[in-house]
Design goal:
The protein is of the alpha+beta class. The protein is built from 4 helices and 7 strands; from the N terminus they run βαββαβββααβ. Strand 4 and strand 5 (109-127) form a beta hairpin. Fe cation binds at residues 106, 148, 152.
């Protein structure tokens, strides 16, 4: 089932997600719905707060980025061909490498894209949908998507990384999103 995406301005996007256990109600269905919602919205990642759930869960698929890139982009990133993964109760344990800029967007902040600086490499501990524990290091585009989605379960948004002047210039567009004056190609829930 395709779920509506929570728009910028909603309180849940600023709250830290709670850890869950394997007996979380209808977890498999929720994950299935998150994948369906993410793909239907043309996203590469989706975190539970974006579908109005205050839990530490996100899904991401960096394979799509590589499948859809131009020929001149092939081989540019070290994580090619990417991964498709569920992350539950994730905790970043290390950030390494140089910071690099990449143009990011967010399903909860439609029609706004900005260059964001993030580390090249992230080490993260998490459990998958079977509650198998991992601690892995990711780099490139995959690391960037993981960090973007991880921020959602920490109550952060990609616009938090922008310089104050840039955020000030975006204030009108952000206010329009929170007031429901911006439309996306997918169903959204706007703050009251």
């Amino acid at each position: 089932m395709i779920l509506p995406i929570v728009a910028y301005g909603a309180e849940i996007l600023r709250s830290k997600g709670k850890e869950i256990t394997p007996d979380y109600p209808n977890l498999n269905k929720l994950i299935e719905d998150m994948w369906e919602t993410m793909y239907a919205s043309n996203g590469v990642g989706l975190a539970a707060p974006q579908i109005n759930k205050d839990i530490r869960l996100f899904v991401m698929d960096s394979k799509q980025v590589f499948e859809n890139q131009d020929d001149d982009e092939k081989g540019k990133y070290p994580d090619e061909p990417g991964i498709k993964q569920v992350f539950i109760n994730a905790q970043v344990t290390a950030l390494n490498g140089q910071e690099w800029a990449y143009n990011e967007g967010c399903l909860s902040i439609p029609r706004i894209r900005e260059d964001v600086m993030r580390n090249e490499t992230v080490t993260i501990s998490y459990v998958d949908e079977h509650f198998t524990s991992y601690e892995k290091t990711f780099n490139g585009i995959t690391a960037r998507i993981i960090l973007h989605e991880y921020d959602h379960i920490e109550g952060k948004l990609f616009i938090d990384y922008l310089k104050p002047l840039k955020r000030k210039l975006l204030r009108g567009k952000l206010d329009d999103i929170s007031k429901g004056k911006v439309r996306a190609d997918y169903k959204m829930i706007f703050p009251k």
